[in-house]
Design goal:
The protein is built from 24 helices and 26 strands. The two termini are about 55 Å apart. Helix 2 runs antiparallel to helix 15. Helix content is about 45%, strand content about 20%. The chain is an alpha/beta fold.
Length: about 750
């Protein structure tokens, strides 16, 4: 049972440790979360990534088109000169003949001729024939003549002849992705044979290939002579912007090519076109020796060169009327499409909200023809995942070790560097590096780490305030809360100064007072003394009954901690004199204090149990300060400092050497001094000089000379406690001399 209980406790503790938040756990959780989101690929993040690509397009310098593709525009000028749209087929025939005579290599129509011409003069002739038959019979000669003239007047037949005669026309058609209520428009058979002829199927799968239930194509008499056919469907993204070109659409178990691919195919002399499928969809599309990069759905990312008119525009009216230089059209792919307001196919692109669809087709053609592709290699997915996982973990490890400002600039540097890499690869290599997920994981991880750090710092500051607010001056407390990193609670050895003060004969005084009066007296005394400690930025370590222990040089570093402790002691004595006058008027007994100060190395930090602890100092140098405080009784002084303190304050404060003492059980002796005043006066300086001479006589065993000298001190400073003590010692040594190895050192007993 005991073993089971222990195992259960271990499991509980393990779970608690795992659930306990930390910087690295937060960062790792965010990385894993974004990795999962990346695998799911929600549309929101997809659209966001597309927006970053749009920004890369707009920030990239404009690219000059190759010059192989031009646009014959059905613009406002053409409508003014040639009539409103739709034009009669005779006008289209004139355009084809004109482009053929100009030497255009391929003529591509971003238009479908799916209905017979409504402007036909043949229609009027046939109407006359039917009307004439109502009144009389038509002679055979007239009927034959009508048929002959009709054949010559039929614009659709003439257009078909012009297309066949040109032998360079690629016609467009389109797929309906929502099946119409009425029957499918009857299409000729020829365009259906112009799909992908050589399909290499690696695996029996169509994957995510776009498919359509029906299509609308050109009427047979027009389509019969065309060199090729291609659909001109453009499918926008969820935000309405056109970024992808579907290079394959499935229809009735076959796959068909777009207008752009058919145009390039015709331009290059009909190289083989192949579609390679895999389990995931389209693996590859090849046109001759050119491999066209596509995604699983067979979509190619369109590499826009800039805003509108990235390609040369020539008005159809100018072409028909011979107002265009031949060199502008000769050996070019001429794309015929509308740009006039009200009739053109208006699209949204990364550059503009209003963009002619015919220019999109021109861009796709130029991309394929000149291999100017925007590519996202498959292994970039692994790179994305690696960056998502590593970036978050990197922040979880590094940011907590940096200052807030350094951490901020580290994150900014990463974002800028990664952004620059993405822009560089896009502009110079045509590579699409995913920007959204890596940048989002960095920003999110950084914000969560900062929030967690803020929460931890707030908690630590609250804990810090609870620990120190009653023991340090408000200015020190403010500094600690502002820069908590300056405080080390775990324990460290530092050179500090410790001050001990104690009320003389307090037990006797306490016995003569009522408890309430005693508490009031003690509180008044401790409040005044504590304010003095705070004034000189001391740390009020503790009250021990009527005694005060204060430390200088911690929790914040103080380079003059010894001086501040001495100034505190002097002001405590002066402050006590002020209190005495107040107490005397209230009939309270006078108090006298002794202060001991020592400087040295000591251990400082939190000391105690897990339930209760305190920030304090420990060590021999702390004990020495306490013993020095007690020596004031022996020497009848108020403030005794150690040799280390004396060396620290130099001659800034007025002191006199008292003695050389040695704590019983310790080997090393220490010189002690009386701290007398902030500034020396002539009588005090004279008395101190004589006192020092007396000590020299004392250490030289010249007892009579020493007694005489100390009496001279008493003449200048009546009731001088140290002088009276030395006179007493000298008289004892006169009757009982010290041993031969005596060096003038006084041994301190407990």
């Amino acid at each position: 049972m005991t073993g089971c209980f222990q195992f259960e406790n271990i499991c509980i503790m393990t779970i608690k440790n795992l659930l306990k938040p930390s910087y690295i756990k937060i960062a790792a959780s965010i990385s894993i979360l974004f990795a999962a989101i990346y695998l799911i690929s929600p549309s929101f993040f997809g659209v966001l990534e597309l927006k970053t690509i749009d920004a890369r397009f707009r920030g990239r310098p404009a690219i000059k088109a190759s010059g192989d593709v031009v646009i014959a525009t059905i613009d406002e000028k053409s409508l003014d000169e040639l009539g409103r749209w739709p034009w009669p087929r005779t006008t289209i025939t004139r355009l084809i003949d004109a482009l053929t005579s100009y030497g255009a290599k391929v003529i591509v129509f971003d238009i479908v001729f799916s209905e017979p011409d409504e402007h036909s003069e043949l229609k009027a002739l046939l109407s006359f024939k039917e009307h004439y038959k109502k009144y009389r019979s038509i002679p055979k000669e007239l009927t034959d003549y009508i048929h002959k003239v009709g054949a010559e007047l039929d614009p659709d037949t003439n257009l078909g002849k012009a297309i066949k005669r040109s032998a360079r026309v690629v016609l467009g058609y389109f797929f309906n992705f929502e099946k119409a209520d009425k029957g499918v428009v009857q299409q000729g058979g020829r365009e259906l044979s112009h799909g992908y002829k050589e399909v290499e199927v690696l695996k029996e799968s169509g994957g995510q290939i776009i498919s359509a239930p029906e299509l609308e194509s050109n009427i047979e008499m027009i389509a019969r002579g065309a060199k090729g056919f291609g659909y001109y469907n453009i499918i926008p993204d969820d935000d309405g912007s056109v970024r992808w070109a579907p290079l394959v659409i499935g229809y009735k178990d076959r796959y068909y090519a777009p207008l752009s691919v058919e145009a390039v195919k015709a331009y290059l002399g009909d190289p083989p076109l192949s579609l390679i499928l895999s389990d995931y969809g389209v693996a590859n599309i090849r046109l001759g020796t050119t491999s066209i990069p596509v995604d699983e759905s067979g979509r190619m990312f369109i590499n826009y060169y800039g805003g509108q008119k990235a390609f040369p525009h020539y008005s159809v009216a100018d072409i028909i009327k011979g107002r265009v230089d031949k060199e502008n059209l000769e050996d070019k792919i001429v794309l015929v499409g509308a740009t006039a307001i009200g009739i053109y196919d208006m699209r949204v692109t990364p550059f503009e909200g209003v963009y002619p669809g015919v220019e999109i087709h021109a861009t796709i053609i130029d991309n394929i023809l000149n291999k100017r592709f925007i590519v996202r290699p498959q292994w970039f997915g692994l790179l994305d995942m690696l960056v998502i996982l590593c970036a978050g973990l990197f922040l979880g490890i590094v940011i907590p070790r940096l200052s807030a400002m350094t951490g901020f600039f580290t994150v900014i540097s990463f974002l800028a560097g990664y952004g620059y890499l993405g822009i560089y690869l896009f502009n110079n290599k045509g590579l699409l590096l995913n920007m959204t997920y890596p940048l989002m994981v960095v920003i999110t991880a950084y914000l969560c780490i900062i929030l967690y750090r803020y929460a931890m710092e707030t908690r630590e500051k609250k804990k810090l305030k609870g620990t120190f607010q009653h023991y340090v001056a408000p200015s020190i407390m403010e500094e600690l809360l502002k820069y908590p990193e300056k405080l080390k609670l775990g324990g460290e050895e530092k050179e500090l100064t410790v001050l001990f003060s104690d009320i003389r004969r307090f037990t006797t005084i306490a016995e003569g007072l009522e408890p309430s009066a005693l508490i009031n007296l003690l509180n008044e005394y401790l409040s005044a003394m504590s304010e003095t400690v705070f004034k000189y930025e001391g740390y009020l370590d503790k009250y021990i009954g009527d005694a005060i222990m204060a430390v200088y040089g911690t929790p914040l570093v103080q380079h003059d901690h010894a001086r501040k402790a001495c100034l505190t002691a002097l002001e405590m004595v002066e402050g006590l004199n002020v209190l005495r006058r107040s107490w005397n008027g209230r009939g309270l007994p006078p108090l006298n204090i002794g202060v001991g100060i020592n400087t040295g190395n000591m251990v400082v930090g939190n000391v105690g149990s897990k339930h209760k602890f305190e920030y304090t100092v420990i060590g021999d140098n702390v004990n020495l300060a306490s013993r020095l405080e007690g020596l004031n009784k022996l020497y009848s002084t108020n403030i005794i400092i150690s040799e280390m303190v004396y060396k620290k304050i130099g001659r800034e404060l007025f002191c006199r050497e008292l003695d050389i003492v040695q704590v019983k059980g310790k080997v090393k002796s220490v010189a002690i001094y009386e701290l007398m005043k902030m500034e020396k006066t002539q009588p005090l300086e004279q008395a101190a000089g004589i006192f020092h001479r007396g000590i020299m006589y004392y250490r030289e065993r010249r007892w009579e000379d020493a007694i005489k000298t100390f009496n001279n001190v008493i003449d200048l400073k009546p009731e001088d406690g140290p002088s009276m003590l030395y006179i007493q010692r000298c008289r004892q040594f006169l009757s009982a001399p010290p041993p031969e190895d005596w060096q003038g050192i006084f041994i301190i007993h407990n």
